[in-house]
Amino acid sequence: MQIRHGDVFLRKIESIDKGLKKVESNVIEAGEATGHHHRGINMELYADDKGVIREVEVPQEGYLVHEDHYPIQVEKGAYEIVRQVEYNPYEETARRVMD
Amino acid sequence: MVEYSEKERAYAAEMQQKYIDKVLECGYPRLTQESAKEIFTLLFEIAEESRPLPKEIVICGSPHECQRLANQHHNNDSWVHYSPLPYSYFTDGRYVTEYEAAIEMGKIDKDDNAEVIKNFWKYKKCLDNSLFYTLVFDDIIFTSQPPVEIHVNDNFTLDNRDGPSVLFENGDATYHIEGIAVPEKYVMDRDSITREDVVKEENAELRRLLFELLGPDRFAEIMDLELIDMQYLESIAPESTGHDLENLANKVKTKKNIPSVISTIKDSYSSFIEKKQEVSLLKTRDEDSLVGEPLYFLRVICHSTGRLYHLGVPKFNDALEALAWTFGMKKEEFTPHIET
Prior knowledge:
The structure holds two protein chains of two kinds. By secondary structure, chain A is an all-beta fold. Helices cover 0% and strands 55% of the residues of chain A. The mean pLDDT of chain A is 88.
């Protein structure tokens, strides 16, 4: 199961990586420029050492919500969070899409 | 190499911070003829200048004005350019503060360094009296009043995307983004940036900034693009666009009262249908002079807002391959079932 919610992508995985840490917030990805956030309702969020949400666990039915994108119902399971990047030819690097 | 204990380091850091705060608050006195004369007398002493202090000191509202007047003044054969940038407040000032802390804490041998220390206090006095951008000629000095506004980022690098990085009392200003000096219109009038500006910008750092400042949408708009590939991505997506999603997002900011949150979300649901999303891959008709090849862009439409937008991508021939790349995947792996 793959879900795309704007520039955030959920890809189903077997289980949550044990090296990640559960966090209390419901913000999966904060839009620094716009203040619009991808939020996970009824989801457990897991972050890496830098506090970046890498995976989410949906115990029953969860929802993705955002100011610019329609809510999506997410079925039970564990998901990896993939963030969209864009390319700056003058840096020759991919960088996170800023919204 | 001076060695500090932790307590001494903390003290030196505190002194530096106070200095930086004072600089950022623009808390320096305005120059007067009297204070300017004292500054340049001290500077000439430190430099062991053999020539006499110029008779005339012109106090300008900004470094820009110093330059304008100096250009009108006469030939540039005998001038000295001093404290060239607003940065001097940070660079010189930070060293000065560090040195001052070292003297205060007895880290510098006062007997061995008597002359250096004497000159140091003279220079410190010059800074405290607002020594700033200055052009010294044999017969005249042009010197600028200190800034009235300074904007820096967390790294204390001059940085302001919405206005001047340094503003002077006469309205003259400098503009910086991430410490890079940029033309005024990059900050104040981005809509007027043209393809010519982009193409003519030979500095890679500045062109990178232009790409970032304009955003891929505007960048793509002003460049001459040609379509390479267009494909459809099939997925389930909202039937309509334009719901008040912001209102919904505000209601679900906290996790409290989950059942009511869920019902609010469901109320705002659009019905979902199978949709085909047009994904286009475009490239600039001309090679970019710095990159040495054309620039590539992906053009997609947001299912929720209906907004057309562009993303910069590396060189691809296949639009869906390029879209998959933006999510770190191969085309075969990229199969979103639902998209909003």
